[in-house]
Amino acid sequence: DAGVIQSPRHEVTEMGQEVTLRCKPISGHNSLFWYRQTMMRGLELLIYFNNNVPIDDSGMPEDRFSAKMPNASFSTLKIQPSEPRDSAVYFCASSLAGSWSYNEQFFGPGTRLTVL
Amino acid sequence: AQTVTQSQPEMSVQEAETVTLSCTYDTSESDYYLFWYKQPPSRQMILVIRQEAYKQQNATENRFSVNFQKAAKSFSLKISDSQRGDAAMYFCAYSQGGSEKLVFGKGTKLTVNP
């Protein structure tokens, strides 16, 4: 399996522009997570989906952020309008959620976003 | 809310030596899981080891082992026979039983010296 795929790997944009980050989870996984990593705040969970349905979006910073999962193999995280403080590495992770114990999350390589 | 604290921003170790990374957590739950993730310069997050809170036996994975002290809410990672490839950021993480959410510590940067 190719693992979790994220695109683009790097994105540089100007303040006010719309940014869309993309994620393809591991085939067969039914949970998908979006994280943001910064030096100041570390790794934070933004939102996660189970069976394409958003379960917890309490980590989404504000209305400028939105996430969708139209099908089991694709998710997007959109920032509109972008601001310099959104500069961070954004990770997508997926897992096979079930009724047993804990389900390991597999992370993608991340997208480094720079907003000028 | 649960919190995870890593008090060592940076650590260093000589090749072939042993190093211990510290982690404490705060929770009122009895059912939870603890993890150590490794993030090398490539940025890829890799699960190193996990511990179920209900298990008294400390988890081990080859050169990696944990010291899980449930009463003290402490979860340290020991790396034996350190290798250059172990150089990375290490993150301690917590997940409450029945939840898929991971709460991460701020990380410890490990340097391995030749």
How would you describe what is shown here?
The complex is a heterodimer of chains A (116) and B (114). Chain A has 116 residues and is mostly beta strands. Helix content of chain A is 0%, strand content 53%. In chain A, β7 and β8 form a beta hairpin. Chain A starts with a strand and ends with a strand. By secondary structure, chain B is an all-beta fold. Chain B is globular, with a radius of gyration of 14 Å. The relative contact order of chain B is 0.35.
Describe how the helices and strands are arranged.
The complex is a heterodimer of chains A (116) and B (114).
Chain A: E1 5-7, E2 10-13, E3 19-24, E4 31-38, E5 42-50, E6 53-56, E7 65-71, E8 74-79, E9 88-95, E10 106-107, E11 111-115
Parallel strand pairs in A: 2-11
Antiparallel strand pairs in A: 1-3, 3-8, 4-5, 4-9, 5-6, 7-8, 9-10, 9-11
Chain B: E1 3-5, E2 10-14, E3 19-21, E4 24-26, E5 32-39, E6 46-52, E7 60-61, E8 64-69, E9 74-79, E10 88-96, E11 103-104, E12 108-113
Class from secondary-structure proportions of chain A: mainly beta
Instruction: Tell me the number of strands of chain B.
Output: 12
* Radius of gyration of chain B, whole Å: 14 Å
Please give the alpha-carbon distance between the first and last residues of chain A: 36 Å
**Mean pLDDT across residues of chain B:** 94
Oligomeric nature of the chains: heterodimer
What is the string of helix and strand elements of chain B? EEEEEEEEEEEE
Q: Radius of gyration of chain A in whole Å, from Cα?
A: 14 Å
| Basic shape of chain B | globular
